[in-house]
Recover the amino acids of this structure.
């Protein structure tokens, strides 16, 4: 299996991995620069030459797979009989530098309702490396012609046409998927909210709409759905960045996308052992 296919397999499984590449070679080495190895949790594909180099690289890759926020790193190996490696001696006579690039599990987002706002939002999210699920009950919203604006997407786009029960897609989403509910039908929105609260393992849940719409939904979720206040509070509405009040679809989409990206960042920082150290700039010192 090629390394490209192996990376695709890990992504489809939503399994973290590491791409290991021979970056430089000086003198004699088992494999030339550019040789690649893909390391998953339990499997590997390809080879960077076997022996101590490969075994040590796999060990380190598996450590990176278990780290919360791994960064790329270089490893250097001297290949001579004076250097005893963890997994034996390789005395080819040269030296090798190996690059380890973590392949994290990407974020997953499901947009329910691909109308004017949903399509604008999809266009923005498609520029990011994530798994993007687009769900609609109306086939004319999901035609190849209409979704052609996503042809150059960085994201992996998954299209779901569900003419009857779009909420069934919720159970098919990957763990941690973030859900944005913005269909053309308030009844669909209500069913999706109810089912989302009953679906384990989802990420954030956002609902587009006014305060009046949410007041009605909140009452129904409590009285008819039997959800308690804490569960209902998992649904964020209105969605988007506070203070952006424009009604144009593109404006709403930018606001919602920015808010979602902020959610991604908060989620990432929660997974880091020392979140303050991971901030792009240090916090302001207290004046107290």
């Amino acid at each position: 299996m090629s390394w490209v296919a192996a990376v695709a397999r890990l992504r489809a499984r939503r399994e973290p991995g590491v791409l290991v590449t021979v970056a430089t070679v000086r003198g004699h080495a088992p494999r030339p620069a550019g040789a690649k190895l893909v390391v998953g949790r339990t499997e590997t594909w390809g080879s960077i030459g076997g022996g101590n180099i490969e075994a040590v690289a796999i060990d380190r890759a598996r450590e990176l797979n278990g780290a919360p926020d791994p960064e790329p790193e270089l490893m250097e190996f001297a290949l001579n009989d004076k250097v005893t490696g963890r997994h034996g001696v390789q005395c080819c006579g040269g030296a090798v530098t190996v690059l380890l690039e973590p392949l994290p599990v990407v974020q997953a987002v499901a947009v329910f309702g691909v109308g004017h706002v949903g399509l604008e939002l999809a266009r923005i999210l498609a520029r990011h490396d994530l798994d993007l699920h687009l769900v609609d009950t109306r086939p004319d919203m999901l035609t190849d012609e209409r979704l052609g604006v996503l042809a150059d997407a960085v994201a992996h786009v998954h299209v779901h046409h569900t003419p009857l029960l779009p909420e069934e897609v919720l159970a098919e989403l990957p763990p941690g998927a973030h859900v944005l509910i913005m269909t053309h039908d308030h009844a669909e929105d209500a069913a999706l909210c109810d089912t989302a609260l009953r679906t384990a393992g989802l990420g954030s849940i956002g609902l587009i709409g006014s305060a009046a719409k949410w007041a009605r939904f909140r009452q129904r979720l409590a009285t008819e759905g039997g959800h308690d206040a804490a569960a209902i509070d998992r649904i964020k509405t209105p969605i988007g960045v506070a203070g952006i009040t424009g009604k144009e679809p593109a404006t709403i989409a930018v606001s919602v996308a920015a808010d979602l990206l902020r959610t991604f960042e908060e989620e990432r920082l929660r997974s880091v052992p020392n979140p303050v150290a991971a901030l792009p700039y240090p916090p302001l010192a207290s004046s107290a």
Remarks:
- The longest helix spans residues 249-270.
- DSSP finds seven helices and eleven strands in the chain.
